[in-house]
Amino acid sequence: MHWYLSCFRNYATFTGRARRKEYWMFILFNVLLFFAWIILFIPLLINEAYIPAFSLSGIYGLYLLAAFVPYLAVTVRRLHDTNHSGWWLAAFWGAPFLIWTVQVVAYISLTMSEAAQGMPYAYPALSGVSFILDLGGFALSIVQLVFLLKSGTIGENKYGPDPKSMDGDQGIDL
């Protein structure tokens, strides 16, 4: 709980470094909270208790909004700990959004185009391009996971002092 609350104490602190433990405990708590919400939400829907179900969804939605900035901040600090710029986060989030936007615009323009009527091979070609773009997005996700899983830089780096040495804990960083 200490690591989860530390993310909220550093609500919008995008400078410095965050240990793996701080980042992954924040993620774990949010995943557990999501499953708790599902466990409460599904029975309400099954019993047709729509007002409590959607009230619960609204509360969870407000929590997600409140936790979004701490998530961004702890992720940027985690990237700093591995000696990577926080701008990588923009690439991790921006590239898939850009890929999706290109795919949607291409499919819509192809569907609405009169020229597409005479091009029976346009859709498979577009599917091939979409597949290649999706592979690029998947590769970027793997890079993000590697950055977030690897051990932080030992000692001080350009983003600040080692958070392990600041905690006085030189043990295994989970």
Walk me through the structure.
With 174 residues, this protein is mainly α. Helices cover 72% and strands 0% of the residues. Helix 4 (87-112) runs antiparallel to helix 5. The protein starts with a helix and ends in a 7-residue tail after the last helix. The mean pLDDT is 83.
Brief description of this entry?
With 174 residues, the protein is mainly α. The protein is 72% helix and 0% strand. The protein has helices spanning 2-9, 20-46, 50-81, 87-112, 122-149, 163-167.
| Tally of separate helices | 6
Structural class: mainly alpha
Low-pLDDT segments? none
Rounded mean pLDDT is 83
Strand content: under 5%
Blueprint (SSEs and pairs):
Elements: H1 2-9, H2 20-46, H3 50-81, H4 87-112, H5 122-149, H6 163-167
Helix pairs in contact: 1-2, 2-3, 4-5
Features:
mainly alpha, single chain, 174 residues
